[in-house]
Amino acid sequence: MVASVKVAGSVFRFEGKDLSAFVKAMPFFKPFIVEDSIAADYHLVEDIEAAEEESLRKAVAAVDTFFDVAFEDIVCKFYKLDNRIVFYTHEEHSGKELWEVWEIGSDRVRTSIVRATATIYRYALWVAFNYLMIKDNCFAIHTSANVFGDKTLIFLGESGTGKSTHTRLLRERYPESFLLNDDSPFIKVEKDGSVMVYGSPWSGKTPCYKNEQHHLYGIVRLSQAPYNKIRKLSPMESIGALLPSAPPMLNYCDETTDALYGYISDILETVPVYHLECLPDTAAAELSHDTLLGN
């Protein structure tokens, strides 16, 4: 069995009974599903069986993780074995786990047979998409994206800094605008140098799964303050503003770090970055709108 989706202009084919069934069943993938007859750019293949899992378990025990992250009771670890990135995730309370292997630079990610929860699998697929789309100069950025006609603004910030609140205030103040994605749109530097924002199957706590693309016009990093103030950032400050919102595992492996920094540099060639210190109010929404888009 197979299933195919198109995200950020690329077609991903899922091969394997449980893997394809998961993709077809999950509502966040439905807007992105395409016919299986369309040629695939990338493949996610469910073929890591028990014997290989044990081999991987022994191999990673002999090396250090280069990145790890935990959320709720799910632990995720990343390893580099020769020319392979190995991703392992495990849910403590259920004991369920998943392995993923990507040969650096290839168009294929291999996964273990599905014995994982939807939360584990969804995160693992997000990881796989980010590795595969290095070739496309495209990554998922942790941001909220609002569309104003033919221009899109993205709002960066750590969790709890008010991204969703600010974008909601913008939509209330400017009802002609709309939310493209509230957590993890893919931002792609096209071959002609233009920068596009694509909706994705990952949108955090706000279900917003639009299969659309829009031109990126400006970037705003938010921080909370007892006042509203905005300023344009220098090139070095802009790198510092954008980098923390990129997929973190990419910044801990030489092969992916080079691609990530080149990608950020390409974005900053054409897209300005601002810092908005703000209150959670309509005046802050007006300030960011008028500064970047004009009155």
* Class of secondary structure makeup: alpha+beta
Shape: globular
Multimer state: single chain
How many angstroms separate the termini?
53 Å
Largest sheet: 9 strands, mixed
Task: Give a topology summary.
Layout: E1 2-7, E2 10-15, H1 17-25, E3 33-34, E4 42-48, H2 50-61, E5 67-71, E6 74-81, E7 84-91, E8 97-103, E9 108-112, H3 118-132, E10 138-140, E11 144-148, E12 151-156, H4 163-173, E13 178-181, E14 186-189, E15 195-198, E16 213-224, E17 229-232, H5 235-242, H6 254-268, E18 273-278, H7 282-293
Parallel strand pairs: 2-4, 4-9, 12-16, 16-18
Antiparallel strand pairs: 1-2, 1-3, 5-6, 6-7, 7-8, 8-9, 10-14, 11-12, 11-13, 14-15, 15-16, 17-18
Report on this model:
The chain has helices at 17-25, 50-61, 118-132, 163-173, 235-242, 254-268, 282-293, and strands spanning 2-7, 10-15, 33-34, 42-48, 67-71, 74-81, 84-91, 97-103, 108-112, 138-140, 144-148, 151-156, 178-181, 186-189, 195-198, 213-224, 229-232, 273-278. It contains seven helices and 18 strands. The chain has 295 residues and is α+β, with helices and mostly antiparallel strands. The strands form two sheets. Strands 3-1-2-4-9-8-7-6-5 form a nine-stranded mixed sheet. Strands 10, 11, 12, 13, 14, 15, 16, 17 and 18 form a nine-stranded mixed sheet that branches. The mean pLDDT is 95. It starts with a strand and ends with a helix.
